[in-house]
Design goal:
Blueprint: E1 3-14, E2 17-28, E3 32-36, H1 43-50, E4 58-63, E5 69-72, H2 84-89, H3 94-98, H4 101-110, H5 125-137, E6 143-147, H6 155-168, E7 175-179, H7 183-189, E8 192-197, E9 200-205, H8 208-240, H9 244-248, H10 252-263, E10 287-294, E11 310-317, E12 322-327, H11 333-341, E13 348-353, E14 359-362, H12 377-384, E15 387-390, E16 393-396, H13 397-403, H14 420-433, E17 438-442, H15 450-461, E18 466-470, H16 474-480, E19 483-487, E20 493-496, H17 500-513, H18 528-540, H19 547-581, H20 584-615
Parallel strand pairs: 3-7, 3-8, 5-6, 6-7, 12-18, 12-19, 14-17, 17-18
Antiparallel strand pairs: 1-2, 1-4, 8-9, 10-11, 10-13, 15-16, 19-20
Length: 617
Amino acid sequence: MAHLLGGENLAVSFGTRTVLDGVTVGLEDGDRIGIVGRNGDGKSTLMRFLAQRATPDDGRVTQRRGLRVGYLDQQDVLDADDTVGQAIVGDMADHEWAADPKIREIMGGLVGDVDWHANVHSLSGGQKRRVALAKLLIGEHDVIMLDEPTNHLDVEGVAWLARHLKARWRANEGAFLVVTHDRWFLDEICTKTWEVHDGIVDPFEGGYAAYVLARAERDRTAAVVEAKRQQLVKKELAWLRRGAPARTSKPKFRIEAANALIEDVPAPRDTLALNKMATARLGKDVLDLENVTLARRMEPGAEDAGAPLFDNVTLRLAPGERLGLVGVNGAGKSTLLRLLSGEVKPTSGKVKRGKTVVPAVLSQEVHELAEVDDLRVVELIEREKRSFSIGGKELTAGQLVEQLGFTNSKQWTQIRDLSGGERRRLQLLRLLVGEPNVLMLDEPTNDLDTDTLAAVEDVLDGWPGTLVVVSHDRYLLERVTDHQLALLGDGKLRGLPRGVDQYLELREAMLAGGGSAKGSPTAAGGGSGAAAASAGAAASGASEAEKREARKVVNRVERQLSKLSQQEEKLHAQMATASEKGDFDALGSLNVQLNEVLEEKETLEMEWLEAAEVLGE
């Protein structure tokens, strides 16, 4: 494969902190590379150097003569006064770009629903991102570098971009580098991964999943080596402590070697851990929307707001439910969270909240921190509580925030000076400290690096309360939620038994038909949402080729069945206790609950069998 570009001995420091320290990397034809690492570890800096958008303190970057490099900046670099058409194609006449099928495909995939004559400054964040991507992708480039391309993109936009990048060049032609926190995107398009950490770059073969496995093996090997070193340290320490006469009779090189061994302690990598904290008790009633209609916000001067944002919607959240919400931008995902939290009142219908519900909402912009941005990190957590009991240990506020990656020096940074990812981490920790039992997360992956996301997912895996997640991150949704609902912009909610893939199919059907996805299931209350979702799966006619989707169903159902089995055991134990006490009222109530659990298990078992048939199990 031909060499395209490379960086040799790249080094840069910001203040007293070394970000890159003698890094040497290269890019060849056919490379599909994802760059991962903690926020602030130098991912974007490395890419800017390779694109020759910035100059390192030391080292050099070389390129093949005539190499064409396209670069997507993380920040908005479009001219706000340009129209969408000018921003993308410049002065090119419509008939010129419309005659090129490649450009037409890019336009249709990214900006088909954006007003061609609108000024850039009037666009939403997601629309600006798609315009910037379209401007880049219509060009002829040998190398494309993308810095957080999935930021502000919805699920559809991310899926389209993945398809485009996979088909843009032949296998041994072209190359791209991408910095992103979207793990599904990394797995879908990348064949190599670079991890930037501690001033160096470690290369791994494969996408995100392969990188995680390889990194785990590397860490295991390092742990074995460190354990052996510790044993040697103990022996040498014992020898050195035998006293002066013994030491004088030994060769001097032995003392020097022992001291060198003791001092050779590798610098520990910062660890991230979001601990499982106490959760307030959650009763049988959580949150219900009953026949809710919400009118769209009227723009100034408008005569008619059009169809309502939500039209006669019913949704019931059960204790311990884990729900994911996907949908097009503007369909009302964030508004639905605000309805559930009580921040927004419906035009008609009811929002019922259980007496024991303690909700917490992680907003998309983390605007809650604006009112405390003069405080320091540790001061904010101390305002909530002075000490915390986690896993039988008492932790101070400083120890708690340190586990989430805020070092001693960072703990005394004012909140206004934190990066976007640090602010999101801090606000999530602040919410959990309040011991909520209903957690609502609006685009929680924005600005977070992959290590932080893993820490967040780890705590959400064991979350005992009710969880509602709005996200375009397919990896997160499939990992932490048990079922998903779609908002397609028509005022209804639809169940997605086959997850995000089914949502993309519904959207394709809508776009092809020029209207709503007919026959797709709508979510409703009293358990009918699950039944409707199952009906939608049957109507979609899943074929044997859809094994990946069936595997997701199997995994989800198995998790749900495991939880139901635990509930069944608990109910049997409670019934035995009630029977011994002769409490027949309690016994009758428990029997009703047991029958409900058994019915739900039966429904899930049928769903499992149908999916297993597709897999041939």
